[in-house]
Recover the amino acids of this structure.
């Protein structure tokens, strides 16, 4: 009989799991559906919910999508006209100015938002002017 003890194995090296881009995008799309919990989607696929939230944030940055369909701002139709030296503000729009307005001029671009201006609407206007 051999009295030698077996040599202990070195601890298993923990490696990072790698996921395909398609897998990540499918999970993000699934988690962005209305009435779907992103945590439940993550856990049902063996993913940490924080990891899925990070993928969702990266997905939105890459594709320009808002966080969810509930946070999509209502965009109003706009009409682009030639520059005018006189004020085109009509009486029908003057009541909207009572609710607030914002006017932005950058280089040769001019945007005027009349009515309630929230942070998401302002963000979209600024991003549009930058592009």
């Amino acid at each position: 009989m051999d009295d030698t003890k077996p040599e202990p194995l070195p601890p298993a090296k923990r490696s990072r799991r790698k996921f395909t881009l398609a897998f990540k995008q499918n999970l993000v799309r699934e988690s962005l559906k209305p009435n779907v919990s992103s945590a439940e989607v993550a856990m049902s696929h063996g993913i940490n919910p924080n990891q899925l939230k990070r993928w969702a944030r990266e997905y939105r940055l890459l594709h320009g999508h808002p966080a969810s369909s509930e946070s999509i701002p209502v965009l109003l139709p706009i009409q682009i006209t030639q520059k005018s030296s006189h004020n085109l503000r009509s009486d029908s729009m003057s009541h909207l100015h009572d609710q607030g307005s914002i006017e932005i001029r950058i280089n040769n671009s001019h945007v005027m938002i009349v009515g309630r201006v929230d942070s998401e609407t302002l963000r979209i206007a600024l991003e549009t002017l930058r592009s």
